[in-house]
Amino acid sequence: MQSKAQTSNLPFTVAALYRFARLPQYQDLREPLLQLCNDNGIKGTLLLAAEGINGTVAGSAQAIAELVRYIESIPELAGPELKYSYASSMPFHRMKVRLKREIVTMGVDGIDPLRSVGTYVPPKQWNDLISDENTIIIDTRNDYEVAIGTFQRAENPKTRTFREFPRWVEENREKLEGKKIAMFCTGGIRCERATAFVKGLGFDEVYHLKGGILKYLEEMPREQSLWEGECFVFDERVAVGHGLAESDVVLCRACRRPLTPEDRKSPHYVEGISCEYCHDERTPEDRARYAERHRQVKLAEKRGRKHIGS
């Protein structure tokens, strides 16, 4: 496992950022942001909406610094929640700046983190909160993310999308009554909306991990950590561990689920074609199509090119 000093020497800087803000001019920001990123070799995705900005991008340290300076020059977006990590190769295929209705979608109207949100808990204080027996810890991420890592004692709502989370809360209200409610997610943004939703149901002691799992893994020494496993990230690194070092988790290219080394021991795992989780969900025709795609990916690699469909 690489140390923090080693990972910071890798050639690509990855910036995960978000900022909830009143941003009526968000449509006007798309082209300048896209142009700046393309001019500086930055790739990834940025989402813009009337409620702010959200995204993850990668590029050289100098390029990312220039992008962050530009974003912070916009008064409404100054002081974004920002986390840096590093990659040995470019973890994105292209650059996208998308206009959206929301920067994170939960499917419940009227939930505004700018009006009401849970109490932020910095990583250094998180262990004390989740070690309290009167605290219920909720992983607000989806089931495939939770599968490769989570905090000790955390509840897994087993959601396939964030839109299913409100229903889980409603179905488990009795379990939450009288408890401190501590929520966490990858970078913090889902918890902004999730804690606002739960507070709107009348719960008072609602907390969330400031900066998310990524900030915790960056700051918390492994020997003091209550995190178990790896943290799924939405790029070609697939997952990171303590110190935000790249992990040995890979994606199944058929179903996009993260696979640990143990998962890859399954007889149903065939690189680029199938895994234990999707083998029975796919037809022979599907697998033949995946096999051809995988062959094309390998041919592109031999020619020193990157196959976009990989």
From TrEMBL:
* Residue ranges of every copy of the Rhodanese domain listed in the record: 131-225
Q: What's the domain of life for this entry?
A: Bacteria
Q: What Gene3D superfamilies does the annotation carry?
A: 3.30.70.100, Rhodanese-like domain (3.40.250.10)
Alphabetized SUPFAM superfamilies for the sequence = Multiheme cytochromes, Rhodanese/Cell cycle control phosphatase
Q: Which reaction does it catalyse?
A: uridine(34) in tRNA + AH2 + O2 = 5-hydroxyuridine(34) in tRNA + A + H2O
Keywords, alphabetical: Oxidoreductase, tRNA processing
Give, as one word, the top-level EC class.
Answer: oxidoreductase
InterPro entries noted in UniProt:
Multihaem_cyt_sf (IPR036280), Rhodanese-like_dom (IPR001763), Rhodanese-like_dom_sf (IPR036873), TrhO (IPR020936), TRHO_N (IPR040503)
Kindly provide the name given to this protein in its UniProt entry: tRNA uridine(34) hydroxylase
Q: Which organism is it from?
A: Chelativorans composti
Its gene name is trhO
